[in-house]
Amino acid sequence: MEKKTIDEIISNLNEINEQEPEVVQAIGMVVKHIHGCYSDKYAKGQDKGIDTKGMLYDKKGGKYINEYQIARYLQRYVTDGTKKSGLLIDLFKLIHYGVFEIVRRIRANQLELNEPAV
C-alpha cells in the first residue's frame, strides 16, 4: 500500500466531512485519544525499560495482545449493568488497539490488500 501524505489524508477527511461531518468528528476524537497516550502514565514506563509498545508491534506476539485488548474493550462496552458498561473511552481504546495491529502489520510487511471480499 502506498504511503499517504498528510495532505492526502486531509483531502480525504475534507471529502468525508462534506458527506458526514460527524464521521470526521469521531475520527478527531479518536486521534485526540491516541495523541494523549504519548504522554500518559504508561509511556513513562519506557524509562524503566518496559516497552509495552514494542510488545504490541512484535511480529508474532503483538497480534495476540492486540486481538485480546480489542475483544476486552468490546466486551466491556457491550456488557450491561456495570459502571464501565457502554463507555465511549472503551470504543477509543479498542480502535487504538486496532490501529496498533495495523501498524504491526505495516512494520512486519504483512499487508495484503487483495484480501477476499466477505
Q: Count up the helices.
A: 5
What is the count of structural domains? Answer: 1
Low-confidence stretches: none
What is the approximate shape? Answer: globular
Overall average pLDDT = 90
| Rg | 16 Å
What share of the residues lie within helices?
55-70%
Structural class: mainly alpha
| Through-space gap between termini | 20 Å
Task: Describe the protein.
The protein is mainly alpha-helical and about 120 residues long. It has one domain (about 5-105). About 65% of the residues lie in helices and about 0% in strands. The protein contains five helices and no strands. It has helices spanning about 5-20, 20-35, 50-55, 60-80, 90-105. Helix 1 (about 5-20) crosses helix 2 (about 20-35) and helix 4 (about 60-80) packs antiparallel against helix 5 (about 90-105). It starts with 5 loop residues before the first helix and ends in an 11-residue tail after the last helix. The mean pLDDT is about 90.
Characteristic key phrases:
5 helices, globular, single chain, 118 residues, mainly alpha
Brief overview:
The chain is mainly alpha-helical and 118 residues long. The protein is built from five helices and no strands.
Q: Would you spell out the secondary-structure blueprint of this structure?
A:
Elements (H helix, E strand, L loop, with lengths): L5 H14 L1 H16 L15 H6 L3 H18 L9 H20 L11
Helix pairs in contact: 1-2, 2-5, 4-5
